[in-house]
């Protein structure tokens, strides 16, 4: 399973950018900035996080689920596990 | 690819129920029912449709993506196609 | 509260179009059309329903919540009721 | 408009917790933790951020939109601005 992160540095760079955005949100609230601008920024962070999640899912299906499936077990549990994760993401 | 619908009758029954809910929504609007109740019903329909989509995705990954992948092509296009569909669903 | 539906005919037309899309989905499943195309169509229906919901919310906040609020009750329950509906919509 | 943040300390505490979760995500990726666990954590962060957004919206509608509306202008722009923010949030 190791090494399934297609490009770990890219993921880390994106997550550090999100961390910066969260600190920016704290500053906006602390400075009483306009509520709608805070909401717009929260939507931007959510979208960025979901893009990270979609990339991780692509890697996961490509390198884990398909690999496992290629061992001949069509009922492999990894598919159910992946779709449960997608269901949580869709509602989040 | 034929026959990948694990349980076509179940999908059709769920979609017919959604169709009934949409007609119910028309009746609610036509009768000037309370706006919040209409919104609650729309949220229920969306959730039902997303549950159908998640089931379809499970079938699709299990019977199409994994099958294709088991032919030895780790870069198969079906993964990218599936994650693009997930990305659209997440934003919808 | 009557008449808060800004343009009832427009809402009904949009909901009838959604009903047609749901029947189209049943046909797609019945004819074993490609899973990804069914998913794309489900995402389109969800987006259409959410646009209807956003329009209803706009009407509701404009004509009900603000009206109620203008009677001088800043703690009016309609705000909490509206944001609870938004929370359900966001997760749906 | 100042002071519309009902409980600024509470918002800041919630955003600091989210910041901690984002740093946790970086650690998970850096340590090659299991992809599905990373996805679960991303969904948790999104849900937490959306709960913050809903609280902000409640404050905003209660203290800004209704106040503005109570000045007698039913067509006030703040409603359209708020529903545009809700539309962005719903898609994020």
What's the short version?
The first copy, chain A, has 92 residues and is mainly α. The first copy, chain A, contains 3 helices and no strands.
Can you put this structure into words, describing what you see?
The structure is a homotetramer of 92-residue chains. The first copy, chain A, is an all-alpha fold. Chain A is built from 3 helices and no strands. In chain A, 39% of the residues are buried. Chains in contact: A-B, A-D, B-C, C-D.
Give a quick set of tags describing it.
homotetramer, 92 residues, mainly alpha, 3 helices
Strand and helix map with partners:
Four copies of one chain form a homotetramer.
Chain A: H1 8-30, H2 35-69, H3 77-91
Which percent band covers the strand fraction of chain A? under 5%
Structural class of chain A: mainly alpha
Low-confidence region ranges of chain A: none
Molecular shape of chain A: elongated
Order of helices and strands of chain A: HHH
Q: Total strand count of chain A, please?
A: 0
* Radius of gyration of chain A using CA atoms only: 17 Å
Oligomer: homotetramer
Count of alpha and pi helical runs of chain A? 3
Q: What percent of residues of chain A adopt helix (DSSP H or I)?
A: over 70%
Mean residue pLDDT of chain A = 90
Pair of chains with the largest interface and how many residues each contributes: A-D, 47 and 47 residues
Span of the ends, CA to CA of chain A: 26 Å
Biggest sheet overview of chain A: none
């Amino acid at each position: 399973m190791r090494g399934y992160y297609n490009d770990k540095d890219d993921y880390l760079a994106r997550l550090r950018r999100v961390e910066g955005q969260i600190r920016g949100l704290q500053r906006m609230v602390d400075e009483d900035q306009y509520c709608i601008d805070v909401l717009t920024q929260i939507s931007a962070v959510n979208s960025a996080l979901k893009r990270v999640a979609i990339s991780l899912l692509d890697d996961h299906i490509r390198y884990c689920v398909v690999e496992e499936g290629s061992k001949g077990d069509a009922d492999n549990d990894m598919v159910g596990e992946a779709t449960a994760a997608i269901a949580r993401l869709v509602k989040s």
